[in-house]
Every structure is written in structure tokens, then in C-alpha cells.
Specification:
Elements lengths: L3 E2 L6 E2 L5 E2 L6 E2 L19 H4 L16 H8 L8 H14 L12 H97 L3 E5 L9 H12 L8 E7 L3 E3 L8 E3 L2 E6 L2 H13 L18 E4 L3 H17 L3 E5 L2 E5 L7 E3 L2 H8 L5
Antiparallel strand pairs: 1-2, 3-4, 5-9, 5-10, 6-9, 7-8, 11-12, 12-13
Length: 372
Amino acid sequence: MPMTKCGGCGKFISPADAARCTKCNEHYHRVCVALTGRGALPSFWQCPECRKNVRRDNKSETPVRSSQAEVQAAAAPLISAESPVLRSTISEESADEGQDIGLGEPAVCARETGVAIDDIVHEQQIDVASQLQAIMGELRNLRIEVLELRKEVRSSGDACNVRMDSIEARLQVLEERHADVPVTATAVEGVVEQLKRDLNERDQELMANDLVIANLPESQAENPVHVVKVIATKLGVQLDDRDIVYAERVGGRHLKATSPTKSAEVRPRAVMVRLARRDLRDAVLDSARQRRGATTEDLGLPGPVGRFYVNERLTKTNQDLFRKTRAAAGIHGWRFVWTKRGRILVRNKPGDQTRRIGSEHDIQEIIGQYTV
């Protein structure tokens, strides 16, 4: 049922318990309009506001808002109905003003006024109780929401803990893998180096029948095969055309400055020769070592007479390694550095053990540190 306000005190009131004016339709507390009991009102009842201008035996009632006795009664709800002070106050005010408190009835007695005060207190207690019940309901709802929120937070925390455990486990696995990476990388590097050495040795095996003749004068009309046959004859080895697979100049042309006053000369390119058999190549190399210092004299080659060199052909890797080995040997005083069948050999002095150089690490370990 909707609540409405009292036309006298301005507080909320239930229409079922209120006194309704038949003229202005305003609702009043029964106490505010000095009504006793809870019985039905007359069908013609009017509030003091509407009755104040109606003449009844030359008596005009005062509006309900100016009734001092009623204001005092509302302001002091805790005063007992049997109190002499309340009884004397109501009697005096009623006697002075000469007003009726009811509907044409005599002034109410102190007991009836006490009953009206009890009604006000009872209504206020009901109002407070209803408000407390509403507050308690809100608190219950709030408690339920807090419990649900705690459950959600707890479930979210558990999910976060599970996820953090998973992340920590994965991180630990990654750290363990990272700890194994250096070892794995070292092993892989070792495998790569071994593969490089194997490929280099295989390439060197493919050059087992090859020779390189350096510092031979070069001319445009020369025949490299004829030049090789002439050099082999001078070294004491007879070669036929069928013993030479091919012979040609390799590399680019380089300028050689002999002195600041003379113009630069073109340095002759080396002649690369492939023989049909390995024994022929070994025979030419042995003869060249025995006749070390042979020159181009009596060969019929153009240009000045000079010394020529016959060596076995090396791969680019072995060439670089041989150059570094000679540099280190020169620094540390090693006297002998040579190649045989694609292998680089060193010896410090006559009578010492011959050592093989297979990598730069071998140079540093056998000969010593060097800078190129």
C-alpha cells in the first residue's frame, strides 16, 4: 500500500491507519487531530483546517498546525499518560483556549492522551523496525555478493597459481636447454670443422696428379703443353703428349715493380698441369727437388733468364695454411717447411721429428704463436 504524508506533522503515514478529511482529502495521524481509538470515523468528518472557518456556537477552532498542546504531545512521546505535569498542562491549555480536542466532545483526559502517545511510539517503532529490516536485507544481499566475490577471487587466484606453475616449469626447461646450448654449440662447431677438413682432404685427393710451375716467362703465342714437356726434359723426365691431360695458365695478370725508376712489369702467371698418372707427377717433383735452383736457360722461352719452381697443386685452404706455416716458421726459426701429397710437413732442424700441420691450432701448438 502506498505511503502518504500526514497533513499535520508532515511524516509518512499509512492510509489504512490515518484519518481522512472528507473535504480536502488530506490524511492525518489520529493523534495529530486529537482522535482517540481506532474506530471508524463519521462520514462527514473534516480536519481542523477545514473546520476552522465553520461557525459552531461562536466557536472557531484553531488550525492543527498551531495547536500547542498537540505539538507538545508530539515532541514529548516518552512522557507517561499518568504524569501530573502532562495532565496539568493539557488541562490548563484546554481551559485557556476554550477549544475542543475531539469532534464536539469535551477535552480529552490525560489517560486518553497517553494512549495517543503510545500509538505514536508504536507507529514509530514499526517504522524503525521496517527500516531496520530493509537495512538487514541489504546487508544480507551485500554479504552474499561479498561471498560470491571471494569465491571468484579465490578461483581466479587458483587459476593464476596454476598458470604461474606452468610458466615456471616451462622457464625451467628453457633454462636447462640454454645451459646445454654451449655444449651443443661446441659439438656442432667441432662437427662442422671436421666436415670442412674432410672436404678439403677430398678436394686435395682430386689434385693428386696436378703440378704448378711458377715464374715461367709468359708470351701470347706460347703452347703450355710444349713448355711443360721442355721443362720435364730439362729435369730428366720424358713426357709424351698423352701423358699430359691439360696444361694452362691460371690466375690473373699481376704487375711487378722492380724499382722506382723502371716501369712495372707484368708478373707471369703460373702454369697448372695435370698428368695422366700420379707416378709421373711424383717423378717430376723428385727431379725438381734434386735439381733445385734450375733456371729457364736453354728452354727457348722469351724474356730474361730466371729460376722457376715446380710444386704440387694445393687447395685454397691448404695454400693459406701453408703460407701461415711458413710465416710462423720464419718467426720461430724452424728451417724446414714443405708439402708432400697435399700434406704440410715441418721440421725444426735436421734429425728432428717431422710434424704434420692440419690446422691453425697445430701451428700454434707445434711451432708457436704468429701474426700474419
